Amino acid sequence: MKKHLKDWLIPALLFLAVFAVEMLLQRYTFLQKEYFGLFLNTPDYWNELWSGPHPLLTLCGDFLSQFCRMAWGGPALVALGVTAGFLLVRIPLRRYQIPLAALALTAVLVIALLPKNRERERWAKVEYASLHRQWDKVVAAATPEAAQKDRVLIPYALLAYSESGTLPENLFRYPVNGPEDIDLEGELTRHGYYFAALNAECLGCTNEAIHNTFQTACTTPHGTSFGTLRQLIKFNIASGNKTMARKYAEILAKSPVNKGTARAALRYIDGMPEVSYLDGGPSDSAAIVTHSTFQNLRLMAKEGYFNEAAADRYRCLLLLQRDLRNFAGSFSPDDDIAALPFCYQQALCLIPDPDIQQKLSPSVTNAFHSFMEAYNQVRTKGEDPIMPGSFWDYYFLYGF
Amino acid sequence: MDVVQKTATMSRHYPVLLLFIALTTAACTPREFTDDPSFPPVFPDYIGVTVPEGMAPLVFQMADGRPFRMEQQRIGDTLWTTVRAWKRGDRRGVRYAPFPVYISSDPIDPVIAYRLIEPGYESWRNMGLYQRDLSSYKETAIVTNQANNLGCVNCHTFADRSPERMLFHARGRGGGTVFVDGQDVKVLNLSQVGPHRQGTYPAWHPDGRYVVFSSNTTRQCFTIRNEQPIEVYDTDSDLIVYDTATDSVQLLIETQDRLETFPAWSPDGGTLYWCEAVDPGHIPQSRGQVHYRLMAAPFAGGTLAGEPQEIWGSDSLSVSFPRVSGKWMLLTAARFGTFPIWHKEADLWLIDLETGQARPVEELNSDETDSYHAWSSGGNWIVFSSRRLDGRYTRLFLSHFDGEGHFSKPFLLPQKDPRDNQLRLKSYNIPEFVTGEISDRQERIAGLFKQEDAQ
Questions:
Q1: What is the pLDDT of residues B148-158, one digit of tens each?
Q2: Are residues B93 and B127 in the same domain?
Q3: Residue B163's domain spans which residues?
Q4: In this complex, which of B146, B227, B231 lies closest to A277 when CB atoms are compared?
């Protein structure tokens, strides 16, 4: 009886232990694997599968990838695989069950703790959390310290603060060098397109969000993926394009695991009102986007569609450019300058305009005098920060 | 009565499909039906269309997804289809008025070649040139971009619709223009010979010796918030001619202030047509001022043999893809620009080259983009691409031409499962009629790029 119990208890414990390790250390990697994976019961999918290399292996991987949609799916699959392997190896090595199980668990742990995999997990967490607008998780993972080592985290952190309405307060806590740190301009990779789609979505540029989602899709093995299909449904709903949203939802419904999501989307789409602007013809004067967030924000300001978050990002970009004239011009005379975020007041403090100087908070002007005293003693650029996280440090000490 | 054929065409080719439909529907088919004098709402809309004899059966479904049964009866040149449909669980169904499909004995080329590609922005993953046998649903790859390391394959054209002689561009590493001539396959980088211009849109001279290409510097831009997400434009374009006999390239038309593109031939090869616009500068900001006009010049001995003449143009339209059959020219017209596929107002226009009269072909056009088109060998049929199904993914439609300036109601290229038209995540691009199956090309073309890689 005891032996029989052991036969089942060890594999069960191994399963649970591997599952726990993977849940703790690889969870987001699997969630993002699903985002970029694809399995659809459509003729196109099958045709491309059979015409590509290693169709059976690809099919297995594709089919299993859809179960990673659930947070427990990927860890459970790994745990199942490891346990099945253990059971097979155990047949000839029955006497060494416990060492074998320990070895398997150790291997799983070591693999999960490899620096490369830790970095991938952190990336996956930041990408996943951004996608789901879990901004607190983004800033928790993309800290200023982490960004020192991996500068590509900076745009995610700044996007998170922008969406939380605290970008000006946090901008200069990060090791920013210039406007290029606010997006991944020129990063023509999966990561770059993925961020560009999120960025465009946050700015309300649905065309650009769709554009970059297409670009992201092109970096996946099948040219589309579960995640990009879900995003295309969302963005087409946002732009009022019922036809395209329905098409993508009907295609996504061909994935067994995504069927429920797709059907819910279809019900929502059926209840959507028609949007009139879709009936218009082509515009020969519509604003054109570029790969530069700064240029796009300037265009958006010109076109007149600008929300508060976009306005803040625009001002922060002006600060990163050290363009104090246009920065000051972005406020109206009625704005309560003393109530503005400190870094804005720090910038306005440098503008030799008596009206502005009068309106600044006394604490800012006092702090500026202290800063300048310290600066006059140091005078050498690139020294240790005088007032960490301040615009003045950025303006006077760094990045020239 | 000529021929009576109940439930005929489908059962002839697809007994398994029919059996499946019969088994799945028989169990829950109502026994009582009320008559509805209207035609059934079917997708694709095959009601009253004209199809060539021997065409693959027009498989459809109820537009609202209801189960249905159908009976078909051919009387003379008309195939009458009676549809009975019902809602799941209902005991009574609806019997719709029989709808006609007219069968024309005018010959059609047996194959259509096209490119399948994501209706993309800047990048792509999987694309390829494919051929479709019109008498069945068989679609096979001519060449896919697996052959050239996921590069681009585009702008395919055939010498007088011959499956033996074709060319296409293969972009990317080791790329160039691939010429297929019978068993010979070669890749030629046009930009490294003659005037050092790359080839873009080709037109193969009817006698097979010359190929005129436009040589375009093409860019695209994206709009922030507008239904038209992309505008593709040229900052420069001229015409070059490639002589297949000497492997040489010459400039045909080169101007600084004008953009020349989309070459096309008269059936006898004596006239070269193209589209030409004044370059307003500062495109894309000035894109609304770009209006291409239809031009023509006599052609002989590999060069223009006379002064170019404007054939047709308008300050409010921009033309593209002129294609001639006899005295008829079909072209695409949009409000402005050179890339009508992203212009939902783009329509097909027909010009009588003898009288100069032009008209938008209302019987073909839709509210969405109607664009690239090709005539069949005899000029009895056309195939054209349209985005009418969803506004984004281009699909192929065929239509019969009566030779008098009239087209029949266009019909969607039939698929074995009509849902494929909606589920496919690729656009059909540049449909061309071909007089036979293009066989055995994929491996030899792939071999060409392997050699390039090895070098």
A1: 777 888 889 99
A2: no
A3: 111-448
A4: B227
